[in-house]
Amino acid sequence: MAEKDKVLIDKIDKEYEYGFTTDIETETIGKGLNEDVIRLISAKKEEPEWMLERRLKAFRHWQKMSVPTWAHLDIPEIDFQDIIYYAAPKQRKKLGSMDEVDPELKRTFDKLGIPLEEQMALAGVAVDAVMDSVSVKTTFRETLAEKGIIFCSISEAIREYPDLVQKYLGSVVPYTDNFYAALNAAVFSDGSFCYIPKGVRCPMELSTYFRINAEGTGQFERTLLVADEGAYVSYLEGCTAPQRDENQLHAAVVEIVVERDAEVKYSTVQNWYPGDKEGKGGIYNFVTKRGLCRQNGRLSWTQVETGSAITWKYPSCVLLGDNSVGEFYSVAMTNNFQQADTGTKMIHIGRNTRSRIVSKGISAGKSQNAYRGLVRVAKGADNARNYSQCDSLLIGDKCGAHTFPEIDSHNPTAVLEHEATTSKISEDQLFYCNQRGISTEDAVGLIVNGYAREVLAKLPMEFAVEAQKLLAISLEGSVG
Amino acid sequence: MLSIKNLHASIGEKPILKGINLEVKAGEVHAIMGPNGSGKSTLASVLAGNEKFTVTDGSVEFLGQNLMELSIEDRARLGLFLGFQYPVEIPGVTMANFMKMAVNEQRKFRGEEPLTAGQFLKLMKQKSAVVELDSKLTSRAVNEGFSGGEKKKNEIFQMAMLEPKLAILDETDSGLDIDALRIVATGVTKLHTPENATVVITHYQRLLDYIVPDFVHVLYKGQIIYSGDKSLALKLEKEGYDWLINDYKE
To answer: I need a surface site. Which of A188, A341, B42, B238 has the fewest CB within 10 A?
Structure first.
């Protein structure tokens, strides 16, 4: 056993693949947060007055709020005055074409496997690349524009499509929602905006790639996605950050509006820097994600969470319209000293609303992994249905798995099912694989991917393969 | 092929194997019988390298190599196969995926190119016929929801895929109905060649009607106390182990 442990420990030391920094001139504003900083951010983004007003309102509200402490997380005190709230890679001028993107920036995204040049881009995926606080480049805009689809950075949307933004921004996640949502509403610097018009089926996967590069900065991006009546879109989100000793704050808000008969699939592969094996550094990922479904609308969240030192994230569905459907498929993996408190809320308001939750937690090392879920059935939600399945897989004996499922039903016709399991990768399974010539590291990868298969199968093809590799790498050698 | 000399092994502080000696040559079939708790399954596990057991003395040579110095996976890649008495379930991992990895690990070990998806599927199809395994089973998760009979057939299917030099089959006949027993045993016989060897661990003579052994050994209290030809199994079936054990006690 001792020898096996050694092999495994060696394997654990595998470095975070995306830990490099890009040497690029960055424009930042000073540390700290006050109304002047917010005015400055708004001015830098050349925002209209109404947007500044919204930000200030959120900020004033935020100042009255306190940090939430209910999660099963041990969060060191964060000094919100010690964070840089705006950092932008300096580019010579506004971009007209790809040739004008800083070559160093282009190289960064190439290195991450995110091609910004359309002719080289993954077939059928349009990308919005966000570095630190600004959107660097959005690809395939013209192709999408032909269908009337708007896909651009949120800053641009605020300037170019004020009516849409004013109508929808904050309509699903108001600034009063929670501490981090309020902070985000005050200081968000960029993110993606997407609007799919009535009856349009988006012909390609849309994707936003978030990258934190600058030191000591927080990233507060805002994503707003609107699928108008009968529209369909599949959206992907990927995240990485450099390896740093100090913790960095990431507090994003994602709002999704699913109008009547529309369908949205939102997939995330979150791989922020998780900190080193002693638990030093890593991203604090405090994210509010929520979608609202109108009649017959359908929203499906799929997430593969392997990164971040601390994850606080509950992608949720408000099933407002009759017959609307919400789904949540999650694989959350923690290793070393990572902590995750993640899950979902399914709020059934309309009649005949249905929801499905499949959560697969994987804890290794000394990590703590919690599932937190709420299924609420309102008085008028006749015949609401929910099925929840929460599985936990433990690797080793120093980690923890926790589940906090909450059911709150106010309608006697609701049918709610909850299943939960906790398992370990057994010595017998490993021996069986070994006896067939499969090494322990490969066996762990195989078993974990098998365990997560139901969720991985929900990801778009290109992402599924990536996610499988990611799980195997993040876990290699965590059995002892 | 396999040469076991004075093998001692224990689990924790408790000795289980107390000096096993056994020679297996290419082309041979050996049967190991003996009452419950005599150490048969332990012997199979120790040869495969199960770390639950500690080898305290003796030596094992396999194809000219010191078996005890090899990792579990290298023993397997070299051509040692263990047919499990209780095959484990691996949820979500398809048989096809599992076997592809196993086959290609073995090929890599031998310095061969991995099989292409096409070649592999063809091989799967061909080999699943050996044990009349429903080809649908190969798209299901490893042993998950398999019946007892299917699990055992699946073990022999894997043996067919990996073409081991030495197959150790640990009570492959337990829990099988008459038809399944015939299929499994015939499968094993089909896979037997002059170049490979089979060691079957069993309680019952009926398996040996199909897999005819060259040698039958009786394991008792961690030692091989008696060896004979196939007629020994028939005698044991009729008379039990008492006459041997009584001798041994002297």
So the answer is: B238
Whether the per-residue pLDDT at A475 is higher than 90: the answer is: no
8-state DSSP, A45: T
B146-150 contacts at long range (C-beta below 8 A, 24 or more positions apart)? B146/B87, B146/B89, B148/B175, B148/B176, B149/B175, B149/B176, B149/B177, B149/B180
Strand pairing report for B54-62 and B65-66: antiparallel
CB A330 within 8 A of CB A360: yes
- Compare CB distances from A1 to B51, B97, B109 and report the shortest one's residue: B51
A1 vs B contacts (CB less than 8 Å): 51
Confidence class for position A4, pLDDT limits 50, 70, 90: very low
Chain A residues near residue B92 by CB distance under 8 angstroms: 449-454
> In whole angstroms, what is the distance from residue A440 CA to residue A232 CA?
42
- In whole numbers, what is the pLDDT of chain A averaged over residues? 84
At A106, the pLDDT band (50, 70, 90 cuts) reads: low
**Beta carbon pairs, A and B, within 8 Å:** 79
Quote the minimal CA–CA distance from B36 to chain A in Å: 21
Summarize the confidence of residues A350-360 as an average pLDDT. 96
Distance between CA atoms of residues A454 and A460, nearest Å: 13
Distance CA B82, CA A430 (A): 14
pTM of the entire structure? 0.82
Give residue A216's pLDDT: 67
For a pLDDT cut of 70, what percent of chain A falls above it? 80
- CATH 3.30.300.160 applies to domain B2-245: no
Please choose, from the candidates A398, A423, A401, the residue with its C-alpha nearest in 3D space to the C-alpha of residue A480: A398
Q: Which of A439, A446, A447 lies at the smallest CB-CB distance from B73? A: A439
How far does chain B reach from its first CA to its final CA, in angstroms? 33
For helices B242-249 and B230-239, angle between their N-to-C axes, nearest 10 degrees: 100
- Structure confidence by residue, pLDDT tens digits, A114-173: 555 554 444 455 667 766 656 656 667 778 888 999 988 898 899 999 999 999 999 999
Task: Name the token pair of A9.
Answer: 């420990």
H or E stretch covering A443: helix A440-451
Residues of B with Cβ-Cβ distance to A432 under 8 angstroms: 84, 87-88, 90
Most confident of A199-208, A290-299, A440-449: A290-299
The full set of domain ranges for chain B reads: 2-245
